[in-house]
Amino acid sequence: MTSVLDSILLQNNFSTPEIRLIWSDENKVSKQLAVEVALAKIEGELGIIPKTAAQQIIEKAKVEHLNLLALQKESAQKRHSLIALIHALQELVGTEAGEYVHYGVTTQDIVDTGIMLQTKEAYDVIVQHSKALIQTVAALAQKHRSTLMMGRTHGIHAIPITFGVKLAIWLDELLRNHKRLRQLECNEVFVGSISGAVGTYAAFDGRGIEVERLTLAELGLVVPNISWQPSRDRFSEFATTLGIYAGTLGKIGHELFTLMKTEINEIHEPFRKGEIGSSTMPQKRNPALIEGVASLTQPIFSDDSVILQSMLIDGERDAIHWRNEWVALPEITSHLDAQLVQLTYILSELEVNTVQMRKNLDIQGSLPYSERIMFKLGKVIGKQTAHELVYQAAMKAIENHDDFISLLYQEPTVSTHFSKETIQSWIVPENNIGENLAKVDDVVSTVQVYFRGD
Questions:
Q1: Where is the Adenylosuccinate lyase C-terminal domain (predicted)?
Q2: How many C-beta atoms lie closer than 10 Å to residue 358's C-beta?
């Protein structure tokens, strides 16, 4: 094993079967053959190569007709990534038709167009899994629209929120990520290349632009304005878009990790009978799935850096930089898809401890309602004056473990204008969540409308 993606024991923690299949050797060769087939078909139709030769190439260029180990051996001998495939295809179609295999193109055309087909295939899977995650979060946000919990800033209790609004914030961010994914198609990221040695179409006898346009239409890829052999920004745009998405998923995973801590105990990931949390501590129910989601963001960030360096091409083409794409693209797409699928499962089966959420609201007694109290007092005695009075009472309550409301009511400025019962009425949790519920509804509705038109 040289990679966790190759490990039968580990691969499902770091990838999904769908993405692994896309980046398999079989699919890689299949996509390269698809480019050769589309090229031969168009060249045959245009009379650039004999139709009989084109037909032979179309019929014979199938991955099941090839010996991948033989391709690997010849590639190593020739130190060339594609020449073995070209030779094998020539042998398959026969001497006469073999003269027209790979006609007019360079290796970079086939490799780039093939890997773009793989990338687009991975993208399509990711888009579908992204949609499934978003719909899962939307349903959970609706379900817990009014579920009270403590909001935390800097890791410290702040004021009440609902679990629904926490989920809606995630949901809004996930939707933005999904839109960024879809924007890749609008930005013409998924292009092919059929332009020859240095992108000038020199070997096509004046018909190269036409050949490229028709061949890429056959393959379902966008036609570039000009050669992109030395311009690798599209892969960088793709990778960094997935990197931003991974950042969101890692943040959500880390937040779930925090909420599952024993001392907080507000959520639990799905737990199956027989699952083992520790080999030495039988009582443990660890956040294994949640940790898995959060952990995959880091390698994606690292691979994004590798992809960005592939933009530093020398001249019209070199093999120093663009080989980075072969390393990073499979890893980025594999890890992100694993995050999407795993998080969808976690949230679809998430155990939400609403009782503990409510208990945690009461840990600091009435202190989390100091903001509302301050503004209520401020309407009569002035906001800054109210802030100072509330601050002093709150600090005494924390330091002396005393009752905040009682301390506050000892202030003559407060007791002169308000009854203790009135102040007590301001600390009802349900009345301290502002316009949370309206915002949850807005975000969920936005998601529903978006996917109706998607």
A1: 365-444
A2: 16
Percent of the chain with pLDDT over 90: 76
- On whether the CB atoms of residues 364 and 355 are closer than 8 A, the answer is no
Residues identified as active-site: 154, 278
Average pLDDT score over residue span 318-345 = 94
- pTM over 0.90, yes/no: yes
Rounded distance, CA 213 to CA 424, Å?
A: 74
- Per residue, the 3-state secondary structure of the chain, as one string, reads CCCCCCCCCCHHHHCCHHHHHHCCHHHHHHHHHHHHHHHHHHHHHCCCCCHHHHHHHHHHCCHHHCCHHHHHHHHHHHCCCCHHHHHHHHHHHCHHHHCCCCCCCCHHHHHHHHHHHHHHHHHHHHHHHHHHHHHHHHHHHHHCCCCEEEEEECCEEEEEEEHHHHHHHHHHHHHHHHHHHHHHHHCCCCECCCCCCCCCCHHHCCCHHHHHHHHHHHHCCECCCCCCCCCCHHHHHHHHHHHHHHHHHHHHHHHHHHHCCCCCCCEECCCCCCCCCCCCCCCCCCCHHHHHHHHCHHHHHHHHHHHHHCCCCCCCCCCCCCCHHHHHHHHHHHHHHHHHHHHHHHHHCCEECHHHHHHHHCCCCCHHHHHHHHHHHHHHHCHHHHHHHHHHHHHHHHHHCCCHHHHHHCCHHHHCCCCHHHHHHCCCHHHCCCCHHHHHHHHHHHHHHHHHCC
pLDDT 10s digits, 109-142: 999 999 999 999 999 999 999 999 999 999 999 9
Residue 373 clears pLDDT 90, i.e. is over it: no
Yes or no: say if 209 and 172 are a contact pair by the CB < 8 Å rule: no
Residues in the chain: 454
C-alpha 10, offset from chain centre: 20
For residue range 150-206, list pLDDT tens digits in order: 999 999 999 999 999 999 999 999 999 999 999 999 999 999 999 999 999 999 999
Predicted confidence (pLDDT) per residue in 32-69, tens digit: 999 999 999 999 999 999 999 999 999 999 999 999 99
Structure confidence by residue, pLDDT tens digits, 259-286: 999 999 999 999 877 665 665 766 668 8
